[in-house]
Each structure stands twice: as structure tokens, then as C-alpha cells.
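ARCHIVE CARD
Drawer: 12
Card no.: 0347
Subject: one protein chain, sequence and derived structure
Cross-reference: see card 0346
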Amino acid sequence: GYEVASQTPELDMSAFMAGARTGHSKQASAFSSEELALASQEFAQQQNQQPAISEEPVVDAFLVENAKKPEVKTTNSGLQYVVNKEGNGKQPTATDFVKVHYEGKLVNGEVFDSSFERGEPAEFPLNQVIAGWTEGLQLMKEGGEYTFYIPSNLAYGAQGAGPIPPNSTLIFKVQLLEVK
């Protein structure tokens, strides 16, 4: 619900909630399946026609300059990373669960999420996070700490997410604590 509402500010919350309640209680919809499909299609078209807020020139310049640093490595996908501390434990695959500590920030230095601040590591299946994390964490071994510079196309792209603006490059300091 948070993702839908934060990504669509023009959303009629009353209508959305009424539809959600009706669907959740398995009541019959007030609209036919054809009407629902048409409305969904029209909404998607409207979303695609709205000009996206873009920080691509800043993002591109940041990544271009960052790639020049001798400690920064770049993968074929465009993910950039720095090995702060090499681990020596198990290395995850895309289908593994991982336990990590992390701090995520924008290129302007603004922290948008931190398990360090919460004092509790995060656990998740590696194939259910942004592509930059799925790729980057597979480079690590338990006990390692990397910094990832994730281009927007490997993160949340043009839609953004919550406090993350559209087309944002993300910087994550990640400690891989455990592969499960």
C-alpha cells in the first residue's frame, strides 16, 4: 500500500481504499473485468505520459567521476563497488537468504535507510531485492564489507521508492554477516 500511494500522488485514496476493501472481502466488484482492465490501462498510459523528474546528468557525472578512482571496480552491468574489507566466509548465490547490515544514501550524502541506526541487521532472499544488491552481494563473502554505487537502472529507476527520488544513483555500505 505504501509503495502504491507514494508512487502515485494523484491517486484517489477513497476510491483506492473502497476497491481494496471490496477485493479483500471477496465481494463482487462494482465494475466489470473489462472496465477494470481499461481503467488500469488508461492509468498506466497517464503515468507514462507524465514527465519524469530526472537527475540523470548529475547521476551520470557522479558515476563517471567515481569510476576514475583507482579503488572503484565496475561490473559489466554498470554496478560500481569498493572492497572495504574482504570476507572469508561463504559466498551467496542469487537464491540464498542473507543477513546484512547496511546504510543507504543518495549521492548528495542524504541517508535514506540504515540497519546500523536501527541496531538490527536485515535478512532477505537475495533474488527479491534491487538488481544492484542481487549482483553486488554475490561478489562478497561472509565477513566482508563493500560499498556499492548502484546506477538507477539497477535500483528503483524512473519510479523511485519512498524517500528515493526517481532516477537516483544509490550508495550502500554493506556488511555481509551471514549466508543462510
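Annotation on reverse: The longest strand covers residues 97-106. The mean pLDDT is 82.
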